[in-house]
């Protein structure tokens, strides 16, 4: 008789815990999307909309609609294949592993470092109300911040879950305060016509202006694809993933529109225009000051800074793992997979990420960084949306617990929207757009180079 040993350890590898439900998934996305961008992106949206408040609000709505349509497509893909990995998995399955790697590569070179650089620049700009500084000083402080938080993550400092939750609360509080003050106690009736204040424009010029404003708004929605990356850790992802996506994107769109409307109701147009012209982008602090005086300014600015510090630290921590994971899969040099023996952190990846981020700070402005991240992300969002019909053709019999509403029109509208965004950004900022195209192309060459090298080693 064979007796089982109760002390014998299971040889099965540990599995990810399925602990995320609808509420938890929605909170993850809302926490990612409602970040630092809302505090300053509204100024860029208004500026790109020809200072038309009505056109700016329309851009926020369209940005939310595009994000929602894209999220519906991601809901079908995620429910069909609820595996951890998100876009990487969908692009690899629908097209080729090299396409999935191109997404990972642009995340390593543009998406991660670009987001880090943007937050690092935005943080000192939020303090310009208290500490006047020129553009050069803003960039110096941005570089210092990137270095400091890279070192913090190198030494393995764990802030703890309760600190992150505190930062999330502090991030939302100024939004709620400004929305309530502006909507219920604002004294101004904003002009919500769609006519730009910059003068008459042709119909084609109007569409281009609106599309360029939508691109800016999409930076604030950036991060909506991240829930699919943890689909493997969701409870009943076939049902909960689509619900969490729809709920979080819808809620975020409402918050963004109300936040900007509250600003328009709280401040006269002349003050808003003059403030933006002087590169003071944080209109929310002006709203708080108009109602609560200097205390309101300090309260909102302090909460924004703490929230951005949390975002910057989290990005530096998380994005460095892209390099580590790629090297572990033999698709980058082994140095990127090195773990510091004392602090147990991916030191080489952290410092390479720091150098790329600093390079982007030195060569790009804040609005260029946001456009760069959105443009490069839109390329793969478009491919992911088109993966829905591709997978329906390639795997027609695979169970689909959730199907895109109004298919194929949802896919068509979302794809056209991303194409318009890409085309318009290419016209308005060709240098940024070329960079957004070149980096994934280099990623393809890197993939084939490392894959060939690894296969050769295996044969040898």
TrEMBL record:
Its membrane topology, per UniProt? Multi-pass membrane protein
User: Where found, per UniProt?
Assistant: Membrane
Grouped into one coarse class, the protein's main location is membrane
Q: Name one GO cellular component term.
A: membrane
- InterPro entries tied to this protein: AA/rel_permease1 (IPR002293), AminoAcid_Transporter (IPR050598)
Q: Which residues form a coiled coil?
A: none
**Annotated Pfam families:** AA_permease_2 (PF13520)
What are the record keywords, sorted? Membrane, Transmembrane, Transmembrane helix
UniProt-listed Gene3D superfamilies: Amino acid/polyamine transporter I (1.20.1740.10)
User: Any keyword Signal?
Assistant: no
The residue ranges crossing the membrane are 20-42, 54-79, 137-157, 169-188, 200-221, 241-264, 298-324, 369-392, 404-427, 433-450
Alphabetically, the GO molecular function entries are: L-amino acid transmembrane transporter activity
Highest taxon of the source? Bacteria
Name used for this protein in its record: Amino acid permease
Q: Which organism is it from?
A: Secundilactobacillus folii
């Amino acid at each position: 008789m064979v007796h089982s040993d109760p002390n014998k350890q299971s040889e099965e590898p540990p599995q990810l815990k399925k602990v995320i439900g609808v509420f938890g998934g929605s909170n993850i996305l809302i926490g990612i999307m409602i970040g630092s961008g809302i505090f300053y992106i509204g100024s860029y949206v208004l500026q790109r909309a020809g200072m038309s408040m009505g056109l700016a609000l329309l851009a926020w709505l369209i940005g939310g609609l595009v994000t929602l349509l894209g999220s519906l497509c991601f809901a079908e893909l995620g429910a069909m294949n609820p595996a951890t990995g998100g876009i990487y998995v969908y692009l690899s399955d629908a097209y080729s592993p090299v396409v999935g790697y191109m997404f990972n590569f642009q995340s390593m070179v543009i998406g991660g470092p670009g987001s880090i650089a943007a937050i690092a620049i935005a943080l000192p700009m939020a303090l310009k109300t208290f500490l006047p500084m020129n553009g050069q000083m803003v960039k110096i402080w941005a570089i210092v911040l990137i270095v400091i938080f890279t070192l913090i993550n190198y030494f393995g400092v764990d802030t703890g879950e309760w600190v992150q939750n505190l930062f999330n609360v502090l991030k939302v509080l100024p939004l709620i305060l400004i929305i309530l003050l502006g909507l219920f106690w604002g004294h101004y009736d904003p002009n919500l016509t769609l006519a730009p204040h910059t003068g008459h424009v042709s119909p084609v010029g109007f569409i281009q202006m609106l599309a360029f404003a939508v691109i800016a708004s999409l930076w604030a929605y950036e991060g909506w694809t991240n829930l699919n990356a943890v689909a493997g850790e969701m409870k009943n992802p076939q049902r909960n993933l689509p619900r969490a996506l729809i709920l979080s994107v819808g809620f975020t769109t409402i918050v963004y529109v109300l936040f900007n409307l509250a600003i328009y109701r709280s401040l006269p147009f002349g003050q808003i225009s003059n403030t933006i012209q002087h590169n003071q982008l944080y209109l929310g602090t002006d709203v708080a000051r108009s109602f609560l005086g200097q205390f309101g300014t300090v309260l909102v600015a302090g909460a924004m800074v703490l929230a951005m510090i949390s975002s910057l630290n989290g990005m530096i921590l998380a994005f460095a793992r892209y390099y580590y994971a790629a090297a572990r899969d033999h698709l980058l040099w082994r140095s990127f997979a090195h773990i510091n023996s004392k602090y147990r952190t991916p030191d080489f990846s952290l410092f390479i990420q720091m150098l790329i981020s600093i390079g982007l700070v030195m060569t790009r402005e804040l609005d260029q960084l946001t456009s760069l991240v959105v443009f490069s992300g839109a390329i793969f969002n478009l491919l992911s949306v088109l993966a829905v019909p591709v997978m329906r053709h390639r795997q027609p019999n695979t169970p689909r617990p959730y199907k895109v509403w109004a298919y194929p029109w949802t896919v068509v509208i979302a794809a056209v929207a991303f194409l318009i965004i890409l085309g318009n950004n290419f016209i308005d900022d060709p240098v940024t757009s070329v960079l957004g195209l070149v980096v994934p192309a280099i990623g393809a060459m890197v993939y084939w180079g490392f894959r060939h090298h690894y296969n050769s080693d295996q044969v040898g």
